[in-house]
Amino acid sequence: MKRLIFLLVVAILGIIILFSPSFTVMSFQETRTNNPQSYYINVSKEDKFNIRYTHSIHLTDVLENYEITDSNQIKLLSMEYEDVAIGMPAHAEQGQTLSYENGKYKLEFENQTVESFTLYIGNINLELAVIYEGNTYDLKKSLERGSAFLFEIKRISIFDKLKGVVMVHEKE
User: Fold this and answer.
1) Are 16 and 159 within 8 A, CB to CB?
2) Which residues, at least 6 apart from 46, have a Cβ–Cβ distance to it below 8 Å?
3) Would you say the C-alpha torsion 44, 53, 137, 164 has a positive or negative sign?
């Protein structure tokens, strides 16, 4: 009887450990599919990250700077870009500041916070990467081109982590 109780307690503890959200990750959840795949970048204590991409029309780099809030929301800090033609802001709106220095525009946001956003992985050979803790994660190599992914910061369990794919950064 003691052995049965012991095994039951161990099984319950194992289930709790396996299914309790204990890892904070940047999550890329595939959308518009019947069998969505999840991809993760492990988050540590560093709360800032960047998304860098080459604009498909201007063919210039855009750098978006983000911060992870205490409630795991995504706070847009600023955008840096070289051209204000198609698709890039040429003026600041309420709660924003636009400056121009050394050939680059910098659009800063006072309080722009979202829970998630959809990221489209274009089927073109231009850069799209997440930069976190000095490491570059090439999204064009890790995620399926032509697909959309829900991007969010969230806590996941060991079970969720085993079901998904943990992205690796490129060697610097």
Assistant:
1) no
2) 132, 133
3) positive
Tokens of 11: 């099984």
CA dihedral 50, 117, 85, 49 (to 10 degrees): -10
Block mean pLDDT (10 aa), the chain, length 172: 87 88 94 90 95 86 96 96 83 91 92 95 92 95 94 95 84 56
- Which residues touch 71 (CB under 8 Å, ≥6 apart)? none
11-22 per-residue burial string, b: 16 or more CB within 10 A, e: under 16? eeeeeeeeeeee
**131 touches 101 (CB < 8 A):** no
DSSP codes of every residue in 138-165: EHHHHS-TTEEEEEEEEEE-HHHHHHSE
Q: Rounded to whole angstroms, how far apart are CA atoms 97 and 95?
A: 7
- Say if residues 124 and 98 touch (Cβ distance below 8 Å): no
| Structure token pair of residue 72 | 């795991």
Which residues, at least 6 apart from 82, have a Cβ–Cβ distance to it below 8 Å?
58, 60, 61, 103, 104, 105
Distance CA 153, CA 166 (A): 14
